[in-house]
Structures are given as structure tokens and as C-alpha cells.
Amino acid sequence: MTWDLIIAGAGAAGLMAATRAAELGCRTLLLEKNNKVGVKILMSGGTRCNITHAANQQGIANAFAAFSKKQAGFLRSSLAALPPENVIELIEAEGVATKVEDTGKIFPVSNRAIDVRDALLRRAKNSGATLTIGAAVTEIEKPAQGFVVKTSMQRYETANLLITSGGQSYPGCGTTGDGYAWARQFGHRIVNPVPALTPITTDEQWVRDLQGITLPDAMLAIVCADPQQEANGYSSKHFLASRRSSLLFTHFGFSGPAALDISRTVTLSADRNTLKLVCDFLPASGFEDFLSQLTKSCRGSGRSNVAAVAQNLLPKRLASAAMERVGVSAGKRAAELSRQEIRGLARMIKAAIIPISGTLGFNKAEVTAGGVSLHEVDSRTMQSRIVDGLYFAGEVLDIDGPIGGFNFQAAFSTGWLAGQSVADNTRASGIDRQ
Ligand SMILES: Cc1cc2nc3c(=O)[nH]c(=O)nc-3n(C[C@H](O)[C@H](O)[C@H](O)COP(=O)(O)OP(=O)(O)OC[C@H]3O[C@@H](n4cnc5c(N)ncnc54)[C@H](O)[C@@H]3O)c2cc1C
After folding, report:
1. Is the shortest distance between the CB of 132 and ligand 1 below 6 Å?
2. What span, in angstroms and rounded, lies between the C-alpha atoms of 320 and 324?
3. How far, in Å, is the centroid of ligand 1 from the Cα of 48?
């Protein structure tokens, strides 16, 4: 049998593409290497699945704003074809209620990623698409017409081929960058893939000892170390990247959105050892306001010791570490701290400078930055500008967004548009033939 469309990879993009193409009448085959589909959906958002991001009044404006200018421009047609509200509609139509959290992130009410995966799988199965799991695509050939797709067990012929094999982060999930080799084979340029949204590491033992502490609101910035500047304090003009969000201390350093979102700057740096983090553990107020608040708290603290004052502001272990780092004894009466000691403590809390040793790389990266160059893919259809009938969607493309549901949104939208374009072309060529 010759297929209208074969899709390589049943993740977020592949499932959406299969659904759209099959619902529009294409004979669609979805091939997945793993023995289950949507593995990354299952592990996403700490197994809660941050499906997408709440749209503002203008609908898709938020999703655009999350991406670089080049990527946002490329996503214009796909986000219009399947905006965030339509993703939610589609998932809710399968009986999975969703909720918007304060951060704008959208999750299933059940907090169960498997509900989202099952909803997408159900819709894809009902669309009439054929799904084959445990079928790794090993080879693709290009005869004069269409494509030949081979797995270790089978050989398939198809008029159109969509590559949705994802990036190369979390390779244990099946995403080993296979799509890049196929794209190269067809003459596509690959923008060097690098890990993005990956935890940041430090060799500082005192930081590692804080593992398990979460701060709901912190600001992390990356600076290029400069001893003179360090003495005066870094300001925003020195920041190579910065992000205010929640932060998690781990046994290797930093994770959580604040760290993940700026990790790309570390990955791309030629000399990571020159980079340092500037951490503001209480970013709600500016430094001078905080200093005068802290001074007031200390002066008015009666017989309380410094530990009591610091623990009012920060989790106990972080407060202890901050005092120790600036050489202030926890048992000392806060009212007796010198101005210099209070300033030192304030700097430790508002602008702690911590050397970076690197990142956890692809093994723990939530996405891959880089991939199939956007210049050679028609953003209105997702079709290759080099080879007719060849399409790309999802993370295999040079698209990566920040934490917040934007990466799924990009995968869903580009997959949907690719499925629709194949169906449009198939219909048009059918009419031509008649
Ligand atoms: C731990 C973690 C948490 C995340 N949390 C979120 C979140 O909450 N919100 C969010 O927006 N994003 C999140 N992401 C990112 C998101 O998962 C990806 O951006 C998204 O899955 C990309 O979709 P995709 O369909 O392009 O690729 P994938 O979902 O990676 O799917 C690609 C599929 O192709 C298959 N494949 C690969 N090679 C072959 C082959 N040769 N033959 C057949 N099949 C093949 C793979 O097995 C895989 O199933 C998270 C990622 C990780 C790793």
C-alpha cells in the first residue's frame, strides 16, 4: 500500500499532524520508535504536563512573545492554524479539563500528564490514522516519486513524509537526533543543536548542600566574571541573560525555571569557567529598599539573634548559609550588627555571586536549541523548500521556547499545520489527476 503521509515520530507534533491529516482524509501512517507514544508528554511538567500558555486578549500574542524574533516570524502561520485556545479545546473535547495557573501555565485539572497524552492518542486513533509503535525508522530513500521509508521490519512507500522525530535531549526517551541526519541527506542545513532548558551546575559545596530548597520567586542572572566589577557589584547592564521565576537547589547546583531558562547562555559560551551567576533570592524589592528594610528589622529586633531575622526572610538552611558566607554569627543579636555586616548580608541575599561549572547538557535538557534551519522550510506549510513532499514539524526544527508550555505549543501548531498542508496538497493533486 502506498500512503499519502508517513510521519516519523509520535510525540506532540507527530500526534497532532496524524490527527489533522487523517481527519482531512489522508491515508496516514504514524511510526514510533518507542513502545509507547508521547513519552515526553508523559514526563513533562513534572508529570503534570504544562500543555500551553494562557493567551491574552490578542489570543496568540503571548506565544509569539515567548520566541526569538526569527522563530516567532516562522511560527506565525502555524500558531494561527492552531492557537493555544484550540489546543485546549481539542484536549477538553476528549474529556480532560484544564486549568490556568497564576504563572499563565495551563495544566490538566487532574495534574496527570497521562490524561493529556491519552486524549491526544484517542483523538489520533479516532481520526483513522494508523499507528505503529516499536517501529524505528532506520532509512529513508527518495525515488523519483514519493519516499521509501524503512524500519527494521518493514518497507513502506509514501507520497509525503513528515519528520517529527524531535531533538536530541533526553536521548534515553528515543530522541537521539535521527531527524537531523535525514534532513542533511536531503540537503537541509542543521543549525548546531545545543542543549537548552538544562540545569546549571556549580562546584560550590555550600550551594549543593542546599539541595531540596525551592524558592517560588528568585532572579538569576549570568555575568562574565570581572574581579573589579565583582567588588562594586554587577548591575543589569552586565547581565548576559536573566530570569525571574522559581528556583530549585539541587545536589549539582540549580534547576527550576529561573535556572533552566538562562542555561542556553552557559551552553553556548566558549569559556564557561568565566561565567558566574548573580542570584537575587528576594527580588520583590530593589537593593536599597531591601537594605533599609533589613536595617530596620535588625535595629528593631530586640533580643532576637540574626538567625531569627534571617529566617523570617529565607528558608532556614539558606538563611544559615547566607550568614556563614558573610561571616555573621547566627547567634549574635541582630540589633548589634554593624552597618557593614548588614550590608554584607543584604548583598549575599540580593546579589550572591556563584561560579558556574557548566550544565547537565543534553541528558537533562528539556529541549534542544538548533535543528533544521528555518530558512529552508516554508512556514506557511512546513514543507521543505528543497524537496517536494518532505515536511518538518516540532522540535526537530530550529525552534525552542522558554519554560511555560511554549515548546508543546510550537510542536502542536507546526504538527497541525503540516498535517493540514499535506491534506490540502493531496486533495489538490487528486483534483489535478481527475
Ligand atoms: C523532562 C521534560 C519536561 C518537559 N516539560 C514540558 C512542559 O511541561 N511543557 C512544554 O511545553 N514542553 C515541555 N518539554 C519539552 C517538550 O517535551 C518538547 O518540546 C516536545 O515534546 C517536542 O515535541 P516533538 O513532537 O517535536 O518531539 P518529541 O515529543 O520529542 O517526539 C519525538 C518522537 O519521535 C520519536 N523518534 C525519534 N527518532 C525516531 C525514529 N528513528 N523512528 C521513529 N520514531 C522516532 C521519539 O521516540 C519521540 O517519541 C519537556 C521536555 C522534557 C524532556
Report:
1. no
2. 6
3. 15
CA 372 → CA 114, 364, 397, distances in Å?
29, 21, 4
Q: What is residue 202's three-state secondary structure?
A: coil
Residue 22, phi then psi, degrees to nearest 5: -70, -40
Q: Is 301 in the pocket of ligand 1 (CB under 6 A)?
A: no
Closest residue by Cα to residue 23 from 69, 67, 82, 71: 82
The closest alpha carbon to 234, from 220, 254, 216, 249, belongs to 220
pLDDT-derived band at 62 (thresholds 50, 70, 90) equals: low
- pTM, two decimals, is 0.94
Cα dihedral 66/67/68/71 (nearest 10): -160
* Beta carbon of 137 within 6 Å of any ligand 1 atom: yes
Eight-state DSSP code of residue 146: S
Ligand 1 mean position, distance from CA 201 (Å): 24
Length of the chain: 434
280-323 pLDDT tens trace: 999 999 999 999 999 999 999 888 999 999 999 999 999 999 99
Nearest alpha carbon, ligand 1 atom 33: 9
Cell matching residue 4: 499519502
Using an 8 Å Cβ cutoff, are 190 and 165 in contact? no
pLDDT at 432: 55
- 393: CB partners within 8 A, 6+ apart: 13, 14, 16, 17, 162, 163, 164, 382, 411, 414, 415, 417, 418
Q: Identify the three-state secondary structure at position 74.
A: helix
Residue ranges and CATH numbers for the domains of the chain are 2-195+367-433 (3.50.50.60), 200-359 (1.10.8.260)
* pLDDT, mean of residues 152-161: 96
According to the model, what pLDDT value does residue 287 have? 95
User: Which is the closest atom of ligand 1 to the Cα of 165?
Assistant: 34
Indicate whether 85 pLDDT > 50.
yes
Residue that has been written with the C-alpha cell 508543546 in this structure: 408
